[in-house]
Amino acid sequence: MQRAVPSPPSCSSTSHCFPLNHRHTAACGSETAAQPQKHEVRAGSSPSDPSRMRSIVCFYICYALCLCLGLACVVCVCVWNSRWRGGFAWDGSALQFNWHPVLMVTGLVVLYGNGAVLYRIPLTWGHNKLPWKLAHAAVMLLAFVLSVVGICAVFDFHNVNHIPNMYSLHSWIGITATALFTAQWVFGMIGFLLPCTQIALRKFLKPIHVWFGSMILMLSIVACISGINEKLFFALKGNNNASQPYSNLPPEAVMGNSLGVLIVAFGLVVLKILSNHEWMRPDSRPEDGVYAPLLQEDND
Amino acid sequence: MQRAVPSPPSCSSTSHCFPLNHRHTAACGSETAAQPQKHEVRAGSSPSDPSRMRSIVCFYICYALCLCLGLACVVCVCVWNSRWRGGFAWDGSALQFNWHPVLMVTGLVVLYGNGAVLYRIPLTWGHNKLPWKLAHAAVMLLAFVLSVVGICAVFDFHNVNHIPNMYSLHSWIGITATALFTAQWVFGMIGFLLPCTQIALRKFLKPIHVWFGSMILMLSIVACISGINEKLFFALKGNNNASQPYSNLPPEAVMGNSLGVLIVAFGLVVLKILSNHEWMRPDSRPEDGVYAPLLQEDND
Questions:
Q1: For domain A64-298, is the CATH number 2.60.40.650?
Q2: Which fold has domain B18-298?
Q3: Euclidean distance between CA atoms B208 and A272, whole angstroms
Q4: Which of these, A60, B5, B56, B267, is most buried using a 10 Å CB contact count?
């Protein structure tokens, strides 16, 4: 029913080709069905289309917001733990616990979110996909390593201080997010980086990978908010002269709550970018197919 | 570039027409551009298509899961508060507080989620849209009323017991979710129920309405999880003989944590249903347009 019109070769090799008007339904079901449509609309839109330019501008506004909110989250969580919680150490004390929020927010939220939207940047679309695929995997690996170190920080702190692990709802959700992230990274590497992976397996995996990507971010945000809320109740009991209770909203409470609001705002912006099909990376060359294995892309 | 083939009249008037194979990009950007595609693919798929049947079966599995998880959430939150928290009253005591989790989970999560997926049920697609539009609005209104009563329960309990309101991160996220839900309901009524609303305004509002629908559910889940986590830490301090501390994972803690897991699972299933464009309700009659005002639909 839909006629596939291949995009002109120049469009796949220049960085000025931003086919933002295409409708990509990859995440919605059969990607085979969606592919002809992508090339069709792409070939039919000219670079000077006002709607295309508007879409590019909208993307970069969202992306700038994503970068600024991510940076604000990292700054806030560092300032909170260094200024009000005494700083950092790795000695089993409360200072070791402070690595936990910093590494989880930086790894499982900010780096993860930025890694997820990497493919959406129109500036990268005219280039070979491989470096961006490797960059996506590398950012996600770094996010994963930070998250695992963040979890080790709290487990070690609990063990040294004879506090049970894994009893709170926060910990149940957080460990689920990290376990799913581990599975996502392993299946992502097997599915999209190993050259021996069958095209059919990539086709099957891609919508699942995209869907789980968003859901893991959602779980991370749920875990972070419940963790910050719990920490503020633990820390701000007001039972000594040095601290006011949480209910008085002292500066530390305002900082912690603001960090939570920033994390939620960052998550919403990332999920908005991920859900907008206009901003999905188009296929670089129709003849390669969407799921060209790594070695093929390497030779692009 | 895309040829719009109107669907046959029989397809718009029978309950056996489930055009599940269409690709609806309404939530992704310009709906005008997406519309021809919907009718095209719809007309091209026959009711006996294996992929269509598979899609219908998948939907009903997800929908059954959504109903079961929603019911399990309501049962769990009621059992938790009646068996372990002493039951319910409206007298300013802790028993009044117990209405808060019950009404928020039932209203802002379960009823809200079920109201959101109402349009996705294929059985409703062959029928006049108006009753389903009114049912969607009515379920959302009931969800809204329960949420407001749930918030009143905790504000009143705090005021009677001289506990400050609105200081925790949980309360900040929860009140934001409820405020956005209020705005969503008001703009939804103005945009989609009032007959005087311009078609152009509906076209503008629909993707925003769909997007905010999912985001409000996400915020509700974040608020619920942080609230359950906070409540379990407050309630299970283990400082009296009657209760064990949360860290010992007594039965109440397992019940509360399980409720949290069920809420997250329910939210993921609802978001999965909402994000699958194959399951979006197709236009009942192409000549009416997607955004036919209420009175037009009334006369269908």
A1: no
A2: Four Helix Bundle (Hemerythrin (Met), subunit A) (1.20.120)
A3: 11
A4: B267
